Amino acid sequence: MSDRTKTRLITALKTAGPQTAAELAKAEGVTSVAARQHLDSLLAEGLVGFEDIKGAVGRPKRVWTLTREGHAQFPDNHSGLILGLLDGMKELYGDEGINRLIAHREQEALKVYSTALADKVELKDKLCALAEIRSREGYMASVEENVDTGGFFLVENHCSICAAATTCQGFCRSEMSLFRAVLGQDVDLTRTEHLLSGGRRCVYHVKQSA
After folding, report:
1. SS3 of 14, please?
2. The whole model's pTM is what?
3. Rounded to an integer, what distance in angstroms lies between the CA atom of residue 110 and that of residue 113?
């Protein structure tokens, strides 16, 4: 299997979530037979897994997902180095040192994000600009409208600092604070999915305050 095809398939599973071979084939413009062959190869490499889901009628539907190893194909911003630095920081300066580091990171990001959103007035425009920045940082971010609430979802299919955030959840709390700061006080923001809590991605529901 070509590396290009492998990358396309694992990227499709990363961004769109669990899918059948037929769904992947349609999205990638290949035959279902070819998609299944590629998925079998990825299965042998330990990058994907599957679950056979029974429906009301007919044969069970095989749904493919990324494994932990599959998710690891996406960059984590030099996780080993980051974890080493965090361990050293904690040993030298304790939890207060870690908290000050997170606060400093948040303030530096706030400067960059605020500049990028400075000329945006509408909430959707702000979110699209924010998603563009986050994608450049490796979060594979996008914006989706929520027709039920009139709000939006900021979707991040990857966490580029996952190792650091797993070690210190202060990073996740800091990012929530950062989003609230750049989007404005008149915005309600809640996290509805969390990668570190077992979700396949992080999702934030955002809407104008009543």
Report:
1. helix
2. 0.67
3. 5
